[in-house]
Amino acid sequence: MKSPRALTALPVFNERGTVHSVLDEVKRYSRDILVVDDGSSDGTAELLAERNDIQVVTHAKNRGYGAALKTAFEYAAAEDYDIVVTIDCDGQHEPQRIPRFVAACQNVDIVSGSRYLKQYPGDSEPPAQRRWINQLITGEINQRLGFQLTDAFCGFKAYRVDTVSQLPVTEFGYAMPLELWVEAARAGLNVIELPVPLVYLDEKRSFGGALDDGTTRLNYYHLVLDRTMARGEVEVDGAAISLGG
Description:
Strand content: 15-25%
Shape: globular
Number of helices: 8
């Protein structure tokens, strides 16, 4: 079997302190790298311009995490990649796991990292509120869509480009993964999880503005989830169910 053509994509916003070290490590495990600079204003763009071993797409202003991922999907499709791996640039993901994600994605549509599928020595203790929100939303997704996820929000993923590029993505903020799960269920995509270590280097890292408030963030997640579900029906356990209401 021919090896798939894989791209590693990193959404980046104001990551001046980690961008070089993370990219140096990613380069050891991925030949092709795309950075989507989502309107950084802290000097990250200037650091990226120093490199000649990556591709960079720049948003003129900050558009959101989901928008950066959508740009990565569009780039991967336009450049005829088979698989796109997404990894964060804050140092909380281990690039040496990229080849495992690529290999696992050859027979499924989405490989999603999970920080709660397995315990690793030295795992961080997740911030209590973030863990609770993750558990709540993950449970709702499983119940409503028929998945068996343990971590709905992990940014370390691999996608088959021909399938993910066809999913309608309209949410450009942090809740974009929730929209993606609904559309993946609607399209009947095959999804598996791979365990990854639980690493929190900055427990007080901001979501930006009002989303730093847990209640506001949870309401936002429910809004996006319900709005996406209201678009139509999905088949769960062999039965077509309406997702609205």
